[in-house]
Structure formats: C-alpha cells, structure tokens
Amino acid sequence: MTLPLFDAEPLPPQVIADGAVLLRGWAAVHAHAWIAAVQQVLAQQPFQAAFTASGLPMSVRTSNCGEWGWAASRSGYGYTRSDPATGMPWPAMPTFLKQQAQALAAQAGYPGFDPDVCLINSYDVGAKMGLHHDADEKDQTAPIVSVSLGLPCTFVWGGLQRSDPVRSFRLEHGDVLVWGGASRMVFHGVRPLQAGQHHLLGAQRWNLTFRMAQRSYRG
C-alpha cells in the first residue's frame, strides 16, 4: 500500500539557499513506516564501520540500499554494486522509501528525481560529519534528498569552497532537506550529536540521503 506524502497541512517549504529547500517535519507523519523500511534494509545490510579517504575511522556507521551503495573502506570510497566487505549486492530500495523520496523532491521543486541509492548513516551520541560535498555522482545536476530521523542535530551549511563561511541550523526528527541547482555542490556537515533520548530511536539519529549515483537527471 502506498501511503500519502502527508495527511495534514505541513509547514510551508523554507528556502535556505538558491536551490536548497527545507521541509520541516514532512517525514514525521509516517515516521513508523520510515523506520520499518529502514529496519527492513538493516535486516539484510546491518550498519558497518566507515572510513575516511585516508583510512581513518569515521564516527558514523553506514548501510545502503538500491542498485548502488556508497562504500567507505580503507581501500577507498565511492559507489559500488555490492558490499566490498561481503561481495553481496546491496538490498533493494523499499518501494515506500523510493516513492517518498520522489514525492519530497517534487515538493522541493525537483520533479523527475529517480534515486538509485539510499545511504543510511547512523549517528550515536558524539558522532559527527566533517565538511564535505557529494561529488561522486555521475550527474551532479541531480538533487540530494536528506531525511533526518531520531535525535536532532546541528547541521552546518557552507559554500562552494571548503573555506567559505558556514552557518548552522537545527534539524529535527522528520525534517527533510533537499538541495540541487546552484547549491548542489555546497559543503555541509554535522556537529557532534548531543546526548538525548528519542521516543522512537533512543540515543541515536538516522540520516537517509537519496541520490542518483549513476543515472542522468531529467527534471
């Protein structure tokens, strides 16, 4: 069964930069369905350690679903058809996740979004993500759809150069950030996750980023 995108009037989209839109709480209304879909993936592809390009361990753990997955190992990182650790193909992307990501992208002004990968990052208390931009995708005109579940985080938004000034804002459970166009290659990151307890996910945050890794965007 396909659930509607929302069943109550949501907060209006908030433009945070040219091409970047924040949909406050838009994934919260079906939070149980989001979490169940992620758990379906995790039953096949549990969270595993990730590493930087220099081989240092990252504080987040990762899983993937879709035709491709983003793998970060000591031997390098990028998109692969299968898990380098096991040789097994990544789990299929649950229909619910794909449909919701497509609908959210359209609400943010990006119709025709067709993700072939969903990277799932798990943040425990203290975990963080340094400034980076998503540059491994074949078509960098395709937007990124990022969904936050669980504990809130402080999200860092910069510019097109790593040295550009940054600003920070809070992402809550159910918030969706979509960016493309002039903002597609903006540097961004996450401050260390603060201690707390979420009523659905406990002391952790999940971040789902939907991408078009090897497809061309025709929005």
From TrEMBL:
GO cellular component: cytoplasm
Binding site for 2-oxoglutarate: N121, S122, Y123, R205, W206, N207, L208, T209, F210, R211
Cofactor, how bound (note): Binds 1 Fe(2+) ion per subunit.
Any GO MF annotation of the entry: methyltransferase activity
EC numbers on record: 1.14.11.33
Keyword flag RNA-binding: no
InterPro entries named in the record: Alkb, AlkB-like, AlkB-like_sf, Oxoglu/Fe-dep_dioxygenase_dom
Keywords, alphabetical: Dioxygenase, Iron, Metal-binding, Methyltransferase, Oxidoreductase, Transferase
Binding site for substrate: W70, Y77, G78, Y79, D136, R162
Any one GO biological process: methylation
Record's keyword annotation contains Methyltransferase: yes
UniProt: Fe cation binding residues: H132, D134, H188
Domain named Fe2OG dioxygenase: residues: 114-214
Co-factor requirement: Fe(2+)
Pfam families: 2OG-FeII_Oxy_2 (PF13532)
PANTHER family documented for this protein: ALKYLATED DNA REPAIR PROTEIN ALKB-RELATED, NUCLEIC ACID DIOXYGENASE ALKBH1
Name by which UniProt lists this protein: DNA oxidative demethylase AlkB
Gene that this polypeptide is encoded by: alkB
